[in-house]
Amino acid sequence: MTAPSASRPEATSTDVVAEAARRRTFAVISHPDAGKSTLTEALALHARVIGQAGAVHGKAGRRGTVSDWMDMERARGISITSAALQFAYRDAVVNLLDTPGHADFSEDTYRVLTAVDAAVMLIDAAKGLEAQTMKLFAVCRHRGIPVITVVNKWDRPGKDALALMDEVVERTGLTPTALTWPVGIAGDFRGVLDRRDGSYRRFTRTAGGATVAPEEQLSAAEAAASEPDAWAQAQEEVDLLAATAGEHDQELFLSGVTTPVLFASAVSNFGVGTLLDVLVDLAPAPAGRPDADGAVRPVDAPFSGFVFKVQSGMDAAHRDRLAYIRICSGVFERGMVVTHDATGRPFATKYAQQVFGRERESIDVAFPGDVVGLVNASALHVGDTLFTERPVSFPPLTTFAPEHFAVVRSIETARHKQFRRGIEQLESEGVVQVLRSDRRGDQAPVFAVVGPMQFEVASHRMEQEFGAPVHLEPLPYSLAVRTDEASVARITASSGTEVLRRSDGELLALFTTKWVLRVLREGKPDLTLEPLVAAQLG
Ligand code: G4P
Fold first, then answer.
1. Of 113, 268, 435, 531, which has the fewest Cβ atoms less than 10 A away?
2. How confident is the model at residue 12 (pLDDT cuts 50, 70, 90)?
3. End-to-end CA distance of the chain
4. How many angstroms does the Cα of residue 76 sit away from the middle of ligand 1?
5. Distance from the CA of 210 to the center of ligand 1, in angstroms?
6. d(CA 369, CA 355)
7. Any residues with CB less than 8 A from the CB of 251 and at least 6 apart, and which?
């Protein structure tokens, strides 16, 4: 009997299961201006930010950052960088993954969504469902991510609450199950009726920039006495809801049939505490993740994680490259040596950090659901898996079907080396997809993107970071499909099309319009012209 009384692996396994169970890893997503930054800041205020006193972020928190990169964000009032904010709430550890806030939908947002277990969808009460709201709902459906919907800005005039619920049903196919219901119309926000216990959470307006929840909990009788008309109307609407829309059902929520709905005013911190409670109570904890062969790696298996984002040039003072890993199983300990599936090589994790905005801090230990930023991880690419002991490869992250294309040329021909290096780097980070053909040659590859903002970021970085200013010449194509060698000659015989090879080897046929593609499909039905994954979205 030589074994120590507390066998290490067993103790670790119990810890991992317990630690994973208290994680909630999610992202706040929305059409720009719905209040994502405001809500992020409010969430951080409500919670204890782990290890970082005063680390409250959002746009204001990022001011004063020095890199060129951040300059560009600041100038445009957007957020391009993204990482994770970790905080404690009740017994839970909450990981809030930041998504880019710029106007175009970009691949970055999609990648962040591969690393979350739930999403909070913010809707502007006055605008209802907007273009990106629809796209994001589609991505969540596609990836099976449960969505909690928050109707924000209820302090301002907006749409009717019942009409908003109808809009959600009709346009997303999801059944909204309101957990709270507004008392007082948009713009005359008195508070919410909490459908879970019938109580009234009264909204108390506080002078600008309140830092505590301006909420008071009253019983239904007290509510009826203090707000007779607004309360009666809310009651009536809630009865109507009960007759039409469903009640919350955890199974249906997790399987993406329903979306719990809350009403809030992020700018006044109203509804933020309720949202945190709902996240902790209803959002799923990290679960085992299927590998490329479909076998699930349970959370208590040896360490594994995958790279969902790579970013360099975040800090002008440290021209480093950060790879963000979402931990899927096991315990991460800084300094541990893991295996990189793509190369089979060992990778030492000496520099592991938690990053949010400009704040960085070393991470010593992390569990499933957590995000770790690995510094100077030049070998790591988006989608790569890291593991210890039992090998695993998680499925590659699918890329979106690009909709904008531009030829990129170096303005200074002497800087060819920098030009190549920059393009390689941007491609490996997934800032752009790079397409090439013999006809266009290596000096004039084509950038393919989902949102035109990606062009701007790429061209800015080519000049600032790699010293290779470029000229981008837009191409008239608007969609791409997958094809094969056998089809190329007959596709390119038609006008309004071109075939290029993506760096992963995939052959993409580009078309100016859907109509050109349709005519070709109908005329030559034996050609390979298959939609890329994202063509099925949105
Ligand atoms: P985003 O990250 O989704 O793009 O949105 P952001 O938080 O920047 O919010 C966009 C605007 O909406 C901001 O106003 C913000 O103050 C406002 N806002 C956010 N939540 C609420 C809310 O609950 N009620 C009201 N009335 N406004 C809200 P801004 O004028 O663009 O900027 P600022 O000068 O107020 O910061």
1. 531
2. low
3. 62
4. 15
5. 15
6. 15
7. none
Between the CA of 69 and the centroid of ligand 1 the distance, in Å, is: 23
Angle ∠(10,13,18) on CA atoms, nearest 5: 130
User: What is the DSSP code string of 201-245?
Assistant: EEE---SSS--S--EEEE-HHHHHHHSHHHHHHHHHHHHHHHHHS
Supply the mean pLDDT for the chain: 83
CA–CA distance, 59 with 21 (Å, rounded to integer): 31
Instruction: Specify which residues 92 forms β-bridges with.
Output: 89
**Residues in the chain, overall count:** 538
Residue 31 alpha carbon, nearest atom of ligand 1: 3
CA 6 to chain centre: 40
Candidates 38, 78, 274: which one to mutate for ligand 1, based on the most atoms within 8 Å of Cβ? 38
Pick from 30, 96, 267, 268 the residue to mutate for probing ligand 1's pocket: most ligand atoms within 8 Å of its CB: 267
Q: Would you list the DSSP string of 482-515?
A: EE-HHHHHHHHTSSSEEEEEETTS-EEEEES-HH
Radius of gyration (C-alpha) of the chain in whole angstroms: 25
For 110-123, what is each residue's pLDDT tens digit?
888 999 999 999 99
* Cα 266 to middle of ligand 1, angstroms: 8
What span, in angstroms and rounded, lies between the C-alpha atoms of 434 and 380?
A: 18
**CATH superfamily of the 23-282 domain:** P-loop containing nucleotide triphosphate hydrolases (3.40.50.300)
Q: How many angstroms does the Cα of residue 35 sit away from the middle of ligand 1?
A: 5
**Domain ranges within the chain, ordered by starting residue:** 23-282, 289-387, 404-531
For the entire predicted model, the pTM comes to 0.82
pLDDT tens track for 178-231: 999 999 888 888 899 999 899 999 987 665 544 555 678 899 999 999 889 999
Extract the runs of DSSP E, i.e. beta strands, from 357-442.
359-362, 365-366, 371-375, 385-387, 404-410, 433-436
Q: What would the mean pLDDT of 403-427 be, rounded to a whole number?
A: 92
Residue 356, number of CB atoms within 10 A of its CB: 27
Query: What CATH number labels 404-531?
Result: 3.30.70.3280
Q: What is the CB < 6 Å shell around ligand 1?
A: 30, 32-38, 59, 101, 152-153, 155-156, 265-267
C-beta atoms surrounding 507 within 10 Å: 19
Q: How far is the CA of 283 from the centre of ligand 1 (A)?
A: 25
**Cα(405)–Cα(345) distance, rounded to whole angstroms?**
35
**Topology of the domain covering 289-387:** Elongation Factor Tu (Ef-tu); domain 3 (2.40.30)
